[in-house]
Amino acid sequence: MDCREERLPHQSAALGAGLSGSQSVDRALGLLSLIGREPAEGLPLGEIVAGSGLNKPTTRRLLMALMRAGLVEQEPQTRRYCLGEEAFVLGVLAARRHGLLEMAMDSLRRLARETQDTSFLTVRRETYAICLHREEGTYPVRTHALQGGDQHPLGVGAGSLAILAALPDGDVDRIVAANEAALLARYPGFAPEAIRADIVATRERGVSLNPGRLVASSWGIGRAFRYPDGRVAGALSIAAIDSRMTPARQSELAALLTREAVRMEALLAPMFLSKRGEKPMAAKPQPIETGRAR
Questions:
Q1: How far apart are CA 15 and CA 164, in angstroms?
Q2: Read out DSSP for the chain?
Q3: Predicted TM-score (pTM) above 0.70
Q4: Residue 271 pLDDT greater than 70, yes or no
């Protein structure tokens, strides 16, 4: 089995499904740009209609196409439209110097330098996790279980597990169910019941631990970090050979990961600026959820 990469499941329907002509594409991209200017709160349908100059039925049809592609999502409580996860991931991958990776590079380098082991930045993409960057440490014996660009079902690997454990239980149930076939077919050490047990342990410890179940003798430990509104932004993780992952050292690495996660949350706070010129939301580090989500 090749453990280094797993392809994403079939992507959402094409953006232009049900639409025709380049004009529809231009209009949809105009809506995407309009929504993207309000990353914190999102926009209600009325403001999108007014700002785009389109009629309401056309606007709704284009928004549904953008939602099918994962580029836009609708908040269930406020019914406002915000940028979706796919837009975030594409933005990070296409403009790393101005995205999450740029913010995380100091933390990744600091972790690799202080531990001498390899550090990683992982983000969520639908029901999978993708490694955005691998920062090599100086320890002569290194693990090579994960490379930049590799992707696995959420719950497989330390960073991926940290992200999954930080999500509400309803999301966890949906994701594990969606990935069950791939887990059973390609990841013998990560059956759904094993991942659920890992989630419980992660929430109790505050950090995730992969004890060499993806690649033998390659251990990993991870910590999720959040946006100021509580959504999971990604995870930092460290990988090392098993002899360097004693219980005592796990505690040391957990403290370092928590320190850097707090720093990441502080750096992310200025992203949440109101279009009315309000001050950025204060970054309030949140622990990984324990128990059932409320």
A1: 27
A2: ---S--PPPPPPPPTTTT--HHHHHHHHHHHHHHHHT-TTT-B-HHHHHHHHT--HHHHHHHHHHHHHTTSEEE-TTT--EEE-HHHHHHHHHH-GGGSHHHHHHHHHHHHHHHHSSEEEEEEEETTEEEEEEEE--S-SS---S--TT-EEETTSSHHHHHHHHTS-HHHHHHHHHHHHHHHHHH-TT--HHHHHHHHHHHHHHSSEEEESSSSTTEEEEEEEEE-TTS-EEEEEEEEEEGGG--HHHHHHHHHHHHHHHHHHHHHHGGG---TT-PPPPPP---PPP-SS--
A3: no
A4: no
CA–CA gap between residue 88 and residue 86 (Å, rounded): 5
124 vs 159: CA distance, rounded Å: 10
> Does position 224 have pLDDT exceeding 60, yes or no?
yes
Q: What sign for the dihedral angle of Cα 74, 160, 228, 267? A: negative
Cα–Cα dist 147/99, whole Å: 19
Residue 72 sits at the vertex; the CA angle it makes with 71 and 75, to the nearest 5 degrees, is 150
CA–CA dist 189, 192 (Å, integer): 10
Within 13 Å, how many C-alpha atoms sit on residue 230's CB side?
5
Sorting pLDDT into bands at 50, 70 and 90, what band is 58? very high
Q: Is the pLDDT of residue 284 over 70?
A: no
What is the average pLDDT score of the chain?
82
Give 11's contacts (C-beta < 8 A, 6+ positions apart): none
